[in-house]
Write a structure and sequence with these properties.
The complex is a heterodimer of chains A (298) and B (459). Chain A has helices at residues 8-47, 62-68, 71-103, 110-122, 125-135, 142-149, 161-188, 193-201, 206-234, 238-243, 255-265, 269-294, and strands spanning 49-52, 55-58. Chain A contains twelve helices and two strands, in the order H-E-E-H-H-H-H-H-H-H-H-H-H-H. Chain A has two domains: 8-47; 63-294, MetI-like (MetI-like fold, Orthogonal Bundle), CATH 1.10.3720. Chain A is mostly helical and 298 residues long. Chain B is built from 18 helices and ten strands. Chain B has helices at residues 3-7, 15-30, 32-35, 64-80, 95-105, 122-128, 152-156, 179-184, 195-209, 227-234, 252-266, 277-286, 298-305, 345-357, 359-369, 396-405, 417-434, 438-453, and strands at residues 56-62, 84-90, 114-118, 166-172, 175-178, 214-216, 270-272, 291-292, 313-316, 330-338. In chain B, strands 2-1-3-10-4 form a five-stranded mixed sheet. The relative contact order of chain B is 0.17. Chain B is globular, with a radius of gyration of 22 Å. Chain B starts with a helix and ends in a 6-residue tail after the last helix. Mean pLDDT of chain B is 87; it is low at 1-48. Chain B folds into two domains: 3-169 and 332-384, Periplasmic binding protein-like II (D-Maltodextrin-Binding Protein, domain 2), CATH 3.40.190; 175-327 and 407-453, Periplasmic binding protein-like II (D-Maltodextrin-Binding Protein, domain 2, 3-Layer(aba) Sandwich). Classes of the chains: A mainly alpha (298), B alpha/beta (459). The A-B interface holds A 51-56, 71, 133, 137-140, 156, 158-161, 164, 244-245, 247-250, 261, 264-267, 269 and B 18-19, 22-23, 26, 31-33, 36, 97-98, 101-102, 104-105, 124, 127-131, 218-222, 272, 274-275, 279, 282, 416, 418-419, 422, 425-426, 429-430, 433-434, 448.
Amino acid sequence: MSLATPLPAAARPRRRGRAAPYLFVLPALLLFSVFKLYPIGWSFVISLHRTVAGTETFVGFDNYRRLLDDPLLWTALRNTTIVLAVQVPLMLALATALAVALNSTLLRGRAVFRLGFFLPMVTGLVAYGIVFSVLLNKDYGLVNWLLGLVGVDPVPWLTDGLWARISLGLALTWHYTGYNAVILLARLQTVPAELYDAAAVDGAGALAAFRHVTLPGLRPALLLTTVLSTIGTLQLFDEPTVLTGGGPDNATLTIGVYLYRNAFAYADFGYASALAYALTLLIGLLGLVQFRLLGDKS
Amino acid sequence: MTHSDRNGAARPIGRRGVLRTGGALAATGLGGLALSGCTGTGTDGGTGRAGDPKKGEITVWSWQGPATELKALLPDFNRVYPDIRVTVQDIGNPAIWDKITTGLAAGGQGLADVLHIGVDYLPGYVERFPGGLADLGPLGATRHKDAFAAGLWQTVCPDGKRVNALPWEANSAGFYYRVDLFEKAGVDAGALQTWDETIEAGKRLKARTGVHLLGIDKPASQPDAANFFQMLLQLQGAFYFDLEGRVTLDSPEAVRAMTLIKTMNDAGLVSDLAGGWNALMSSLKKGTNAVVPWPTWFGGIVEEQVPAEAGKWKVRLPPAVRRGGPTAATVNSTHLAVAGSSRHQAAAWSFVEFALTRPASQVRIYRGKGIAPALMKAYDDAVFHEPSAFFSGQKKGEIFLAALKAPSPAVNYTSDYARALKLVTDAQSRVLLKGADPATVLREAASELVRQTGRKAAR
């Protein structure tokens, strides 16, 4: 306002200019409110209720208390932790190696390879889940048939707890490695070539250059891919649903699958909402920890 | 009371409306279900707002075979009701259950007018979503009260007032077997009295032909993995819940059933049908198993899948669990319900009535896919009394008709069936894949079910 007084003529357009950005974000804001904010708020209200004989009864934090001694929730968390501890680091290591390889000037037809590794990301989650479940079928799948040709006994890919987890990890790795590699590659291309030259002048070998130039250069992208993979893993739903339905005997049960089951198979929306909030809290906390550990040190 | 409200099921009920009405009912202290009704006759209101019984556009949700048969019925239907346009959608099974749950939870948004619902899910929908399904009583369902197989009216009208659906299929436990394979093993499968005998026969069968006795989806990739266990329970007159709704998952009968399954599995008689339906179909074509212990409706599937094996198959009722015990059990029924949110309830009812209460419709459906009607009058038709060329000249229709007429104890699915089933399939997987002890896993499953649902344990 005080700015406007000495320049009355210019004030009006400027004020209009101030409203413009808000007008531009208004549609997005409206959509966000209706389709995100409202369900987020409403699901919290639902999480405080329990459906008894078709009536929603206010039960306070009962559903949250129920979470704490639900053995299946802990099973789901354990399964998720296994994926986080084993599959995510392996996949990111693979993605880093891939990014470095794809960035190499020695490689011919780089565009083809980049596209090839990224393509799995484009396929629909359910579609690739079904393809994997067909390929990995114990009795009729292609993988066991091929293994059979070299004399290997059929592997219970989806029907044994441990193998089901391995299959899930394989499917996830196939689907997301290329995606992460592309993110890392984009970052890699911003690492100035002079740094490598300087390192070479200082007598650094390929390995030392990778450790002291490439990895520090990749840090922000590594943080991003780690956080994204963590969130993705915690929300894991499509793959276990299609591949194993969370089975056998809950070996691949994830919070997402358990949440869905409570809501849409048992019609226990209150408990499912409480699960969703617990999941959000968990993702928030883990994200925070990762930012602290991997974030910029400056 | 809320009678006029309940009759007003024709008006689209919003989610809050459902909750409020349910609350009002529960507040009377007698519980939602017992009261959720109005009388089947003589009430006003409902039908008035239900739309025109001869005109409208309705959608029907069903799955696979039954959906095909409903579609095939449409030309006949439209000759009688030329102004009702019907769209039959094949939603798939089990996808349809989640889809109906979602629709009901949204106060009927996006739900079809006519819903095909299995006995396992009907009580859950009725109890959890009062008003979600229309009361068919005022639309005229009550006059068909005595038309269906024994016990089924109680299933669709548990309180004797509100009619939640109309029975369609009545499936009895069956035992389809390959005569040629049993002959090779020197066993007369038709004479097997008990499951213990059947297991012994299975051992000979395996030794002489290499074929498994039967198959189970061991890792429970589909919920129907527990069908066989459930049948063994029902043959003993037991279930997951008793009639008071208490948990009976760890009853001696359940332990007995699971022990039979474990014995078969340990003897190497059970092939793995992991993958559900597709695996079952390929095993059928490959001849992996000599017995398919599935109910009435499966006969049509066998004929369709392996037509070249005509004369190699026979069918009988399953052996008893205990010598001299029952061999007949109505293991499941399916029903057509009308959505409470439908704006064409009268037209939807016209379709339901045409499909389910007219013998000619049911005969046609049976001819098509072998789907057995609950409508007793349909059984007067010759098709149920003809010898079947596929089933070695047996009168398949009469075999199952006898089962349908035999006393079958009432089964209480309750609104927590889906939870119970999940725990049962997990317990069964543990037994089949890890060799767990039946009594232990069932005890654990029972206490977990008690914890999840707040129900009482029977023991």
